[in-house]
Give the backbone structure.
Amino acid sequence: MPATKTPQPWDYNVIAQMMRDYAPPSGAFDPNQHWVHRYNIYFMNIRKKTEKKGTLPSPNATLMLESTPRGNEVELLAEYSSMMDGDLTRVKMRCQNNVLLSPIAWDLTFKNKRATGQGLVEMAKKGEVKDGQLLINGKPARNSGVKLDNYASDWGLFAAAQRFPLLAPTLPMQFSLLEYLEIPRANQTLHASGEGKIQRADGDTAFHHYLHYGEAMQPTHYCLDANNRLFMAINPRRFSVLMDEKV
Amino acid sequence: MNSSNNNKNGVSRRDFLVQSLVTAAGLAAGARLAGASPAKASMSASAPAIGGNGAKPNILFITLDQISCDSIHAYGCKGVNTPNLDFLIQNGTSFTQSYSANPVCCPARASWFTGHYSPETGIMNNSYVMAKDWPDIGQWMKPRGYNVVYTGKWHVPGRPVQNSFRVLSSDPKNTASTGDIVTTRSVEGFLQNYSDSKPFFLSAGLLNPHDICSFSLTNSFYKGHMPYEQLADQLPDLPGNFHVNMTEPKEIVARRKKYANGGEGQAGWKDNYWQYYLWAYHRYIEMVDGQVGMILSALENSKFANNTLVILSGDHGDGHTCHQLTLKSFLYDEAARVPFILYWPGHVRAGVIDNDHLVSGVDVVPTVCDYAGMEAPSKLAGYSLRPLAEGSATDWREFVLSHTDLKGKMLRTNQYKYITYEGDPAVQLFDMKADPLEMANLAEQSKYADLVKEHDKTLTDYESHYERATLKLAKGATSKNVEE
């Protein structure tokens, strides 16, 4: 790296050290076919130790994404756990087969199986976007003033980013975001941001990345390997790394 | 409620306040601690609880972490979008002269939940544990007919939350980015499922914008240079008090020096990197605003929408570049002044932004007890805000206190703020009406010497009535404050 080049989040020593022990999924990958990705999510403020040499530390949270083509739509299943109390958020969404995989309708459940309040917190809800409006359980969500026309979900962006090189959207792109499939966020921007490289014990991994920032969003890089697989998403507060893949 | 609010010397705290202020006002020969007047019983009289069909109301206490009062859009902050906090402000009664009892997490929270200032809880900074057995609000309300429930960040060392509340979800322990959504979902689930006939007190501890604490660490690789040229036109202006040119206590000077030369590397921060800090802080505030919106939606769509009082506050603020400081544990307004909002359509006045009355984190317990129709614990430092929220009070306290770490103290009157650190002759006095950004230290001028003395005497006299806790460090801790 030339000395004058602006450092990037993956140059941060904690991340760089972790990634040396990282063994990414490799080989051909088609984001338009069925796939399952499981990510470890780390909170950047915590210096975690690796429990076992050659492995990554235990994560602060996990995200599983499963994508299945369904005719003119894409079905995305997301399972998120912060790993605090056996919490699990599970959401199955129907998405438009567009560049942002805009969610059309979804079912969401939440449980927290180890908490003392277990029986009190389990819940389910349905969401949909109709005529640019977010509806939760059939009712209009709190008025945010955000029209949902060109929009993505935060978890869905993990899947959508893998199709950017194939669909070649015009960048920079303005869009809206449904954070947690609940909170409409305006003024999001996506840029093509260049190429990078991480050093690993068994060889370097080169990647290209997209930069996303906007309301309620720290600048986030979506990093794709040579096969357009999203293996890392990183911002100053959160670092997600692809642990395994099933196709 | 107030009848039991006596200290061990037999002088009520409120009587003391009135006496000391009348004395101070007299000394000022122009009543510069102005407006001292006897407090009226209406300040704290416990009115009947009100709710659906006269029943006791449910109470939802939403707490945010590290939010400065002036960082909310409805209060005039540009460059941040906070529609849900704005909604509460526009439809409830909010207090802009609201002070953290001690602007760092553990002490502020101990004061919230017990109604006592830090010297009485023993939690002077994040390294100490609760050292007196003052009842917390969970312990107090449970035997008095409420189900008391907690979720999210707690952070009161020496007082395990599960001993006082039923816990829905654990403390996310400084990981707002992964944990706040779990806190929020647990509130949603609770509001869907709760079916007990008893009213509830639910405290929901959201953690953001606390993630800003990680800014220096996780942006350290940028070496103080703004990394994203794409954001250049979005960066907010630096505040009017960014540059400091006045006498400050040694602790503040040392803090700035430490951040300049330590791991934060602030000595190398260009102006646009300070702006980037502010930009990032605003994004974290937007994140937690969204969580507040999810909770409000869940409440509105529940059967408790009409009989639940919402109280929202913050434990402390963040320097957010004011006085060229970041983080907390100091007594300038950016760290010490926090939002305090009451919202209950039909019961709390809507759209009232109260810029006059001084309120404090120690007011949470008496306010909650007042609305719950129960006597508050004895010897509290705080007052119920209910009369103010309902427009029925005419007199109010004349000052609030705040403490920081082991030595720092603040006395805030309607006109002035006095800051002193034990053993440090460099005290500060600000005219908060003329100089709300705290840029001119009047204590530097000899003509204000008497006023400084009066404030110091009032502070010292008040402190002489504390039932001080014997300080006890947390296991493995040193007395050094840990700000995370």
User: Anything to note?
Assistant: Residues 1-46 of chain B have pLDDT under 50 and may be disordered. The first strand of chain B starts at residue 58 and ends at 64. The longest helix of chain B spans residues 271-300. Chain B touches chain A through 58 residues (CB under 8 Å).
